[in-house]
Amino acid sequence: MFTLSEEGAVSRNSQQNRAAGKRKKQQRSGTRQHREFRPDFDAESLVFAGIEFAFGPSANAESLRRTLDQLAELDGSGSAAALLDRASQMLDASMDHAFLSGWQPAELVHAVRREFGARTARLTVAAIGSHASRTSAHKSAPEPWREQLDELNIGPDDAPARGRLSAWRAAEHAEPTDTWTAILSLLGFCSYLIPMTPLMATPPNWVTGAAASRPAKHGPEPKVLSRIRGLLAKAEATTFAEEAATLSAKAQDLMTRYAIDSAVIDAEAHTSLSDQVVTRRLLVDNPYPEAKVQLLNCVADSNSVRVLWHQRFGLVSMVGMPIDLDLCEMLFTSLLVQASHALSEAGGDRVKRSPSFRRSFLLAFATRIGERLAIAREQAGRDASSQYGKELVPIMTERTEAVGSVFEKQFPSIVTTSHSVTNAHGWQAGRVAAELADLTGGRERIAE
Q1: pLDDT at residue 351, rounded to an integer
Q2: Which of 78, 26, 75, 70 lies closest to 46, judged by CA?
Q3: Is 18's pLDDT higher than 80?
Q4: Which of 65, 251, 310, 330 has its Cβ near the most Cβ atoms within 10 Å?
Q5: What percent of the chain has pLDDT above 90?
Q6: Biggest alpha carbon distance in the chain?
């Protein structure tokens, strides 16, 4: 089992070294020596040193502990306000850097939570809130950006950055060393973020008031998509595996035919295919993210979508035509629910609750689903060919090449990540569960 992921080892190390060198230039000589501190100089030097010790190639637990103790001492002195102001400014600058690098609010919080846990994730939300207030994001940002702010419970207020940081610290009820660990870790993490493909306008390109109104809808959702959603919802809700298989098969049949019909319409309109290819990103939660990404990869392969796993950050980039991406996300979400149900029904004894069993189960489920989806797509393709004739082959080939060209341009350096199976019982149980969710059964044509 294999998944495409970024080739990040060499490029990440060089990026980290460049970032570390830049910060070291900002430090004065002797910042890591124990000496008498001057609030106007040494507090900032301590913060820069602490960032190096907290995250990155120079991370050092013992040096970090000493730096945290010194920051905690300053935090309780008359320099506390100035120290907090400077930390707030640095956090706000880190948000600028992250968003200019193509990251979005929900993605950043997700990645930070995976790396450091809930406390630092809540700090990230506070920092994003300060940035949103300064940039008038609730008025100027694109609609998807504002939706993410809503999901993070970031309201449109004018609270100053230091006020949000102080509120976060008060709400944490933690020791100063713990809160400073979170601050330094977030600052270091943001400085080493890899650039991501911008999926919408970045903050400097927002125009005040331009996004104030919600975009107009382009008419009602096609009936076929509503029917697909309905079939998948029923498949998720039923407790009978055979019924779920039939419902999922009907949904896959409609999905494939709808995608093919859309491709034929686009070809007749002589539209530029490369201009239609878009990129989206999904958040992949723990546990067993590699198994979930494998399932997504299997679904994507059967729906003309290319997938790249940003493994370290728990993100997946999907490249394809909009309709194919919509269908891919719908089916993937439904199969995740069905896999969870199947895993629950597999049993609850000690062996079947083990992480190795569950991980192997999900990998096997993904692999078998991929095999079945490939067969289902081939059958639907043959049915469509009987309707459209030989002209269908070059149409679909051209779309595949357009998607591949955009994908390779965005991600020129990728590697194939392998996933090993460590529990034979889990693998076998996952194969059986996927067999019951067979997407080739019940393939009768559903008239529009």
Answers
A1: 60
A2: 70
A3: no
A4: 251
A5: 44
A6: 84
Torsion of CA 184, 185, 191, 194, to 10 degrees: -170
Confidence of residue 270 (pLDDT cuts 50, 70, 90): low
Predicted TM-score (pTM) of the model is 0.80
Cβ-in-10-Å burial (0-12, 13-18, 19+) of 173 comes to exposed
Report the pLDDT value the prediction gives residue 431, as an integer from 0 to 100: 78
Beta-strand pair 315-320/414-418: unpaired
| Average confidence (pLDDT) over 428-438 | 72
Q: What is the pLDDT of residues 131-187, one digit of tens each?
A: 999 999 999 999 999 999 999 999 987 666 778 999 999 999 999 999 999 999 999
pLDDT at 441 over 70: no
